[in-house]
Specification:
Residues 63-166 form the Transglycosylase SLT domain. The protein has 9 helices and no strands. The chain has 209 residues and is mainly alpha-helical.
Amino acid sequence: MTGYRIPGPTCATRSGAIDSGTLCRSLSPAPGPVGSQGSGEGIDRTSPADRARLQEIRRLVTANNRSTLDNDLIICQIYMESRFDAMAKAPGSSAKGLMQMTLAAVKQVYQTRKEKELKHKIRDKAEFEACMAEGKAMHSSALIFDEATNIQLGTEYMQYCVDSAGSVEDGYKQYRGLRNGVYYAKISLAATRLRARPDSMQPLYDTLK
């Protein structure tokens, strides 16, 4: 045996041909008004509270991004997944928190951490089961809703997906469980628009519907 592997999907949900993010996201429309449709340009109609929350999320991502992925891309992913709601939960899924971390994804993070520590795949059954128990305990605890912790776990999981798939785009396909690339296309476009207007929520409202 070369090592253990967690079975089943590890993203929040597997959607249909039009990939809109998690079920939680699809049930939660954007909280603010929409400006220039699809352009990310024009008048900023977002509220001071919305802009303050964006800057709070930006600070959190800057401090806790444990991946090689661009901070703006992670910010857009968080908005796509949870609308910046730290307590978000997806009905019918184990997805929790800002980055909608599922039980399987958290377990994978703990497995990856252990294998980095060992510098090889986990080969011992008891060691693997202990690792899975740690991941389950984290996912079951209130700490999963801590914003910094959730971002650390989410970005570590995204790095695992990118490393496994070989590219950022394919990493997001692995994350979503879909090969159409729609999810990455959406958040990548939003990230490009956000870089041009880093203090405005309007690019997110216009792009990630």
